[in-house]
Known about the structure:
The structure holds two protein chains of two kinds.
Chain A: E1 17-22, H1 31-41, E2 45-52, H2 54-63, H3 68-78, H4 82-85, H5 89-96, H6 115-125, E3 137-143, E4 149-152, H7 157-165, E5 174-176, E6 179-182, H8 192-197, E7 202-206, H9 219-245, E8 249-253, H10 269-299
Helix pairs in contact in A: 1-10, 2-7, 6-7
Chain B: E1 2-8, E2 11-20, H1 25-37, E3 42-53, H2 55-70, E4 74-78, H3 82-90, E5 99-100, H4 103-109
Amino acid sequence: MPAPLPTSGPPGPDSPQVTLVIGAGGARCAAALGVVKALADAGIGIERVVGCSAGAVFAALVAFGYTIDESKAVAMRLWKRELTARRSMFGMLRAVAPRLFATKAAAGFELHDIRFPLRHLAAAFGDKCIEAAVLPLHLTSTDFATGELVELTKGPLVAGLRASLALPPAVAPQRVGARLLVEGLLADPLPVSVAIKHGARVIVAVGFERPLQERVESAGRSVLQLNAILANNLLRAKLAFHGAAHHAEMIIVFPEFRHRVGGYATDKLAYIIDEGEQAALQQLPYLHHLLAGDRALALA
Amino acid sequence: MEVTLTECDNATVVKITGSVDGLTAEQLSASIAEPIAGGRVRLVADFSRVNYTSSAGLRSLLGAVNDSRRKGGDLRIAGLQPQVERVLALAGFTGIIQIFADVEAAVASYRN
């Protein structure tokens, strides 16, 4: 097995540290691997990882110490068209005849057959628990009953990832304890609040705005456009509030993709990771000064 | 970071060179507090030579905006570089602060 990323493992007492937050963004979240590489090359450690939606998968890969190559392999297997191409026959029947095929369990309703992605998540992570990660790992989800952000820090990892990715009616909510959980994006697409709550001083927030449609010529694309507008405005509103209201320093890394990158663009993984690394490199001069200043204060 | 203050027409131009971030936030706040304390509350922040900004730097800028507006003035931004404008947009600043292409336009806006 290749050596894990140098950021993995308990940090040394003198090594500078940041909290890494990876937002929602489909396959684009692989850019976080480039950010991790840039931080590692610069000798900057990661003390905690927070992830939302697809970002939760990459957060888990980082927190458990997977190499970039291993992480790429997981992403290649997961973000395929089959992710949404396989329909759940029972879910479809319930959609067209809800009374005939009704069940009491809201969690049972989904239009997609998710056995494929679950199989690959299980193959990647086995029966690992969130709390077993080398770095403290926080997965975010949304309480389907209240809309509140839910932070998962223990329990089965694959169930936690599914909770962070579940988007009804395509994918049914995930039951965790007494709660039904859905997509973390719905509560906060870039949950820096979790890092702030746990006392983070310096946060590297890797976020992704949803690409807007170049043409809106169908009902499906209209829905995609509306979702993108809503998600982007939620992202900016949350980021604005946390940036203005809290003491923590947020280093905002929003990779700019010059080439269009779709949610399943695993054929562009190398490009995505490189854009993430380039975006992080632009932040490094300030990050070095900031962390050096913090260390000097701590030693004084 | 360097900050220079100049009077231009009926506004005070705060020319900032360098980075507006957690390491320079206090200096920026102190520099802008000076004209506000003296009653010069129509401010134009010239960002044409600002190449980097972070959340802590933006918080100090927001404090200056609030202070100037409380006294009947404003702080308007001119000459944003694209990478800085993107951070301001993501942080919600472009929705609450008036932004102009250059200092001349920002200063002229106070005449209207």
